Amino acid sequence: MKRVIFVCSGNSCRSPMAEGLFREYLKSREIGGIEVSSAGIFCRDGGSVTENAAFAAEILGADIKNHKTKALRADDFTEETYFICMTSSISEIISAFNPNAKVMALEIDDPFGGDSDIYLRTAEKICSDFHRVLQFVKNGVLIMPMKKEDIPYLAELERENFSVAWSEKSFDEELENSNARFYTARLGGVLVGYIGAINVCGEVSICNIAVEENLRNRGIGGSLLRQIEEISKFERAEFITLEVRESNLTAKRLYEKNGYKEVGLRKGFYQKPKEDAVLMTKFLKQNG
């Protein structure tokens, strides 16, 4: 059986919220075969979860009030264990201890000392990452925010897939754009695709999406689309829109499968060759 261990520093706030909420996430989707727990790298066993963490988890549907803190142990490192760390610094500690460990970082700020609203927003952010956690555990696909070192690969993938491609400079500029949401996909540690979107006042536009040709039809494109959807929901966006060449039936089927619907046509939008663009949109249902 696969094991997921959410790891933070003290195992009293973030990781117990993640444990309880991810267990409910799996239950609601009738997904079995995954054992879920949590631990801390700087904690003692038997401590209590913070009151605000229990409150935030309960609001979102998980009961963690009886959680007791647990320190990460050497015997937690097994072949079937996936470590989902709240920060990259924690993931680096785990990787240093065991370079073969399956590790993923979420970048969740510590809410310790904050009020109940801060804890609730933290719990919601954790939930927005559950899709990519599941993809990592089930399929080995690691979806992460774009980094500067990814850019040469992304520019090359662009040139291979699009007649009018983004340059490395264009990608680099998006790292400084507070409205940009760019994610990469790795399989077995190797970059295999990416997606980019811009969120302006709750209206999200997908700039582009590309997956290595020999790895298409394996759910990677759908996983990238879903990641944009999850982060857009967390940011309270209203809808996501994109353009696709009218002749690109494969891409249109992918978007339709993921809930996008045709809403219009942009004449002569594409060049090399010149072609109309089909405008597709997905409206987002918010919780509550």
How would you portray this structure in words?
The protein has nine helices and eleven strands. The chain is α/β, with parallel strands linked by helices and 288 residues long. It has two domains: 2-139, 3-Layer(aba) Sandwich (Rossmann fold), CATH 3.40.50.2300; 143-283, Aminopeptidase (3-Layer(aba) Sandwich), CATH 3.40.630.30. Helix 1 (14-28) packs parallel to helix 2 and helix 1 packs across helix 4.
CATH architecture of the largest domain: 3-Layer(aba) Sandwich
Helix content: 25-40%
**Counting H and I runs of at least 4 residues, what is the number of helices?**
9
Task: Count up the domains.
Answer: 2
Strand content: 25-35%
Q: What does the average pLDDT come to?
A: 94
Radius of gyration: 20 Å
Order of helices and strands: EHEHEHEHHEHHEEEHEHEE
Weakly predicted, low-confidence segments = none
Q: How far from one another are the termini?
A: 34 Å
Strand order of the largest sheet: 5-6-7-8-9-11-10
Superfamily (CATH H level) name of the largest domain: Gcn5-related N-acetyltransferase (GNAT)
What would a concise description of this structure say?
This protein is α/β, with parallel strands linked by helices and 288 residues long. The protein is built from nine helices and eleven strands.
Note the main attributes of this structure.
288 residues, alpha/beta, Rossmann fold, 7-stranded mixed beta sheet, 4-stranded parallel beta sheet, globular
Layout of helices and strands:
Layout: E1 2-8, H1 14-28, E2 34-40, H2 51-59, E3 81-85, H3 88-97, E4 102-105, H4 116-128, H5 130-139, E5 141-145, H6 151-161, H7 168-174, E6 180-187, E7 190-200, E8 203-211, H8 220-234, E9 239-245, H9 249-257, E10 261-270, E11 275-283
Parallel strand pairs: 1-2, 1-3, 3-4, 8-9
Antiparallel strand pairs: 5-6, 6-7, 7-8, 9-11, 10-11
